Amino acid sequence: TTLDRVREKTGAFEPLKRGVFKFIHPAVVEACLRLLPDEERRNAHGRLAELLESSGAPPELSARHLVASRQHARAVPQLLAAVKRDFNVGLYQEAADHINEAEAAQREAGVADDMTEFLLLKCRVAVAQGQWAKCTDTAPYLLKSELLGPRDRADTLHSYSCALKGLAEFDAAEDKLRQAMSLYQDLVDSENQCRCQLTAGAIWFERGKLDRAAEIFGEVILTLGGGDSQVLASANMNLAVVATVRGRPSEAVEYF
C-alpha cells in the first residue's frame, strides 16, 4: 500500500498491530493521510477522531479530524466545548479561534437547528475581546430565541450592555443593564447583580460622574462583604482608579 511504501523509505512510523500505527510526530500523521485516496483519508480521519475522543484528548483535536472526515455536525459540539474551556480560563483569543472553527463547521453542515449556545458563546467572547460591534450584531438575534433560559438571557443582556457601553451608547446600555439586573434579582443571584452594578458604575465613570461611580462601587463592596471574589476585587480596583483620577494616590493605595 501507499503507507507501506512510505514506511519502508522513511521509517516515519511503525505498525503496532493490524490497522494501528505509531508515528514519530503528529505532522507525519497529516502528511501520510494526505497520501491516501479521498475515501480512505476521510475514513482514517473519522477513526482518529473516535480514538482521540475516547482517550480524553482536547475536544478541538477530535473536532478537526471530524471536519476532515466531513462530519461537520459532529464537530460543532466539540469545538464549542473548547470555546467554553478556554473562555473560562481567560484564553479569549483561543476561544475566538474555536468560535470561528465552529462557525465554519456549522456552515458546512448546513446546521439550521438551535444555534443558541453558539450565539451565546460568540457574544461573550466578543465582549471579552472588546469587539463591541460583533456583540451588538449577535445579541439581538440571540434575545429573540425562545430557547434562551432566564440566566442565559440575563447574561446576554449584560454582555449587550457592556458592548453598548464600549460604543459609548450609554442610554441603551443602561436599558439593557436594568433588564439584566431584574432577571438576576428573580434568580436570586447577588454576585451577577453586583457584576451588573460594576458595569453601571463604569458607565457613570465614562460620563465623568466620579461621585456616582464611586458610590456604586462602594455599594458592591458592602453587598459582597469580606468575601473573596473577582467581582469584589474589580470593585476595589475601580475605586482605586476613581481615587487616582481625583488625584488622591494615598486613597487609591488602600483599595489595592
Number of strands: 2
Terminal-residue CA separation: 67 Å
The largest sheet is: 2 strands, antiparallel
Spatial strand order of the main sheet: 1-2
Oligomer: single chain
Q: How would you state the average pLDDT, rounded?
A: 86
What's the number of helices? 14
What is the beta-strand fraction? under 5%
The gross shape turns out to be elongated
Structural class: mainly alpha
- The whole-angstrom Rg is 25 Å
Q: Are there runs of 5+ residues with pLDDT below 50, and where?
A: 11-21
Short description:
By secondary structure, the chain is mostly helical.
Q: Could you walk me through the main structural features you see in this protein, from its secondary elements to its overall organization?
A:
The termini are far apart. The chain has a two-stranded antiparallel sheet with strand order 1-2. 76% of the residues lie in helices and 4% in strands. α10 packs antiparallel against α11 (190-206). It has 14 helices and 2 strands, in the order αββααααααααααααα. It has 256 residues and is mainly α.
